Amino acid sequence: MTEHMQQFVRLPQQPPQKRGVVERREDFGEIYREFDQAGAAAQASRCSQCGIPFCQIHCPLGNNIPDWLKLSAEGRLEEAYEISAATNTFPEICGRICPQDRLCEGNCVIEKGFESVTIGAVERFITDTAFEQGWVRPIRPRRERAQSIGIIGAGPAGLAAAEALRRQGYQVHVYDRHDRMGGLLIYGIPGFKLEKPIVERRRLWLEDGGIQFHLNQDIGGALSFEALRGRHDAVLIATGVYKAREIAAPGSGLHGIVPALDYLIASNRKGLGDDVPDYDSGLLNAAGKRVVVIGGGDTAMDCVRTAIRQDAASVTCLYRRDRANMPGSMREVTNAIDEGIEFTWLAAPEAFLGDDHVTGVRAVRMHLGLADASGRQIVEPVAGSSFTVEADLVIKALGFDPEDLPGAFNEPGLALTRWGTLKVGSKDFMTALPGVFAAGDIVRGASLVVWAIKDGRDAAAAMHQYLEQSASFATAAE
Ligand SMILES: Cc1cc2nc3c(=O)[nH]c(=O)nc-3n(C[C@H](O)[C@H](O)[C@H](O)COP(=O)(O)OP(=O)(O)OC[C@H]3O[C@@H](n4cnc5c(N)ncnc54)[C@H](O)[C@@H]3O)c2cc1C
Ligand code: SF4
């Protein structure tokens, strides 16, 4: 062991500085500043280089974290970048938005007693530096292959697969119904977690590598799924999950009650300089309003923190469980509290008040009961505990289910699970249709970017195997 490592006994955890609350509420810039090289090296040197790296085991991508921490501590950043990029298509994105407290950092062995290594921040620093230094080289396949692949969905799953397949030399075409690539990275996740030039930088890199994007292409709409299949030797469906869960309560149809993703897309588009009539009209803009957000996951946290930046008069988050049971990243909950969001835990909406436009939410207190079969405590209303929260804008952030893909694609052969996600082979990622694969949220259900990347990479490997086998059968038959 070099003298560079195991510094946790001497050095305290020091994450990159956060911008002050007053300053960061004024804009949509990321709230964490970047490490400088000395800071990154010092924090990386805290790694204990333990024999069984639990951080790596709990990283969905199996990143070789101890290795790139050691190289960073030694100032060997280009090598650190090579190792980091070998297992992760977008390390700088994961470093920013993975819920590290539940994944790598939450399982760091020095966490008990010394606070974990700031793994995500070092990961981000390594790749941001690599971009600055020109170490992120274009994708240049060793040989071109004639076979072509169609990928539906330019989110992290589709993009990770596109990169891996292009490296193998396939002709890769990515289709998306939006006018920009990135999926939820561009239109869902706000800039204060992930600034958009970071995504744009990757677009340029992917295009430079020869991946062709076909934007504004709604598959199942203007271009049929059947026609798309006819164009390509294999197809990957990576369309994510977008059917917003509804609240069955009286008054839920009132004006001023909006779905979370509509609200976030409007805000992100505005930040990207687009014309957004529903934002300008005030429908999807929290300025001056009393805002109530219903839900407790990452989407809800993004909505409350967007509303506060839009200069809402007040922002309240209603969540039916308690803080400890919130499903999203604890780090983001803490950031939201710091930024002035009021949380009303253990409360659920009973009814929305107002004649035409919403004026308030009548909520009821909840308590946590016994655990159900899944092990999660059930929530039950407390009789006679109703109360009202005044509101001009209510944002529903209760999560997402898959859309009806066999219906949308007019392809009944696409088999579904009982949750409505696409059914694929556990190892080969193939749907019930030969040559049609699927990855990301549309298979897993609403999940995380890091899992989408993992699935995209694994699906690409399975598609490569399938295409090689198909090619060798064709040669044998000649
Ligand atoms: C508001 C919000 C915040 C989040 N925050 C985090 C976070 O902080 N950290 C984290 O790890 N995860 C976060 N997530 C989850 C994460 O964004 C997703 O798990 C991830 O993006 C899934 O990747 P994907 O590629 O499967 O799908 P998506 O990113 O949803 O991409 C799917 C793409 O397919 C396109 N598409 C869909 N249907 C069609 C069609 N018929 N034709 C053409 N194109 C189509 C869509 O336009 C989209 O671009 C968040 C999710 C939301 C909603
Ligand atoms: S990809 Fe996510 S879980 Fe894995 S090391 Fe990076 S931040 Fe941690």
Count every beta strand, where a strand is a DSSP E run of 2 or more residues.
Answer: 16
| Rg, nearest Å | 23 Å
| CATH third-level topology of the largest domain | FAD/NAD(P)-binding domain
Oligomer: single chain
Mind telling me which CATH architecture of the largest domain this is?
3-Layer(bba) Sandwich
- By CATH, the superfamily of the largest domain comes out as FAD/NAD(P)-binding domain
CATH class of the largest domain equals Alpha Beta
Residues in helix, %: 25-40%
Distance between the termini: 58 Å
Globular, elongated, flat, extended or rod-shaped: what is the shape? globular
Count the domains. Answer: 3
Strand order of the largest sheet: 3-2-1-4-16
Give the overall average pLDDT.
95
Q: Number of helix segments?
A: 19
Instruction: Give the structural class.
Output: alpha/beta
Poorly predicted ranges (pLDDT <50, ≥5 residues)?
A: none
Pfam family, one: Pyr_redox_2
Keywords: 4Fe-4S, Iron, Iron-sulfur, Metal-binding, Oxidoreductase
Organism: Acidiphilium rubrum
Region (Disordered): 1-20
